[in-house]
Amino acid sequence: MPTIAQAQKKDIVDTVVAAKDFTILVKALEAGGLTDIPKVEGPYTIFAPNDEAFKCLPKGTIEMLLKPENKDQLVNIITYHVVKGKVAGSTAVSLKEAKALNNEKIKLSFKNAALFVNQA
């Protein structure tokens, strides 16, 4: 059983891997070579799409993005969901937008007890 100190050292990737609803995101992080990004100076907040969100994409999209030749596109999509800094859930629900790691603006909204990133 991990100690409190070990649990506090978990980064975003460790947290996502431990959660069972993010297996597709973990594959995408690995394919994009992004598993070390959270280990550099942070903190970071990820608006992490779960497996159900990924399954809403058109058929074949995930498989296409995981191919090595599409790595740049995959990295752009993933970093679009990451914001530098710690954004608490109570703050996220009131934000209208945030600046993603890929320097694009993310539009945020909170409806029906769910946080949406650009309508998703």
Give a short synopsis of this structure:
With 120 residues, the chain is α+β, with helices and mostly antiparallel strands.
Task: Outline the structure in words.
- This protein has seven helices and five strands, in the order αααβαααβαβββ.
- The chain has 120 residues and is an alpha+beta fold.
- The chain has a single domain, classed as Roll (FAS1 domain).
- The strands form two sheets. The chain has a three-stranded antiparallel β-sheet with strand order 3-4-5, with no helix packed on it.
- The radius of gyration is 15 Å and the shape is globular.
Give descriptors for this structure.
120 residues, alpha+beta, FAS1 domain, three-stranded antiparallel beta sheet, 7 helices, 37% helix, disordered N terminus
| N-to-C order of helices and strands | HHHEHHHEHEEE
Number of helices: 7
The domain count comes to 1
The CATH architecture comes to Roll
* CATH fold type: FAS1 domain
Question: Roughly how many Å is the radius of gyration?
Answer: 15 Å
Number of distinct beta strands: 5
**What is the residue-averaged pLDDT?**
83
Largest sheet: 3 strands, antiparallel
Fraction in beta strands? 15-25%
Low-confidence stretches: 1-7
- Derived structural class: alpha+beta
CATH class: Mainly Beta
Secondary structure elements and their pairing?
Layout: H1 4-8, H2 12-18, H3 23-31, E1 44-46, H4 51-55, H5 61-65, H6 71-79, E2 82-84, H7 89-92, E3 97-99, E4 105-111, E5 114-117
Antiparallel strand pairs: 1-2, 3-4, 4-5
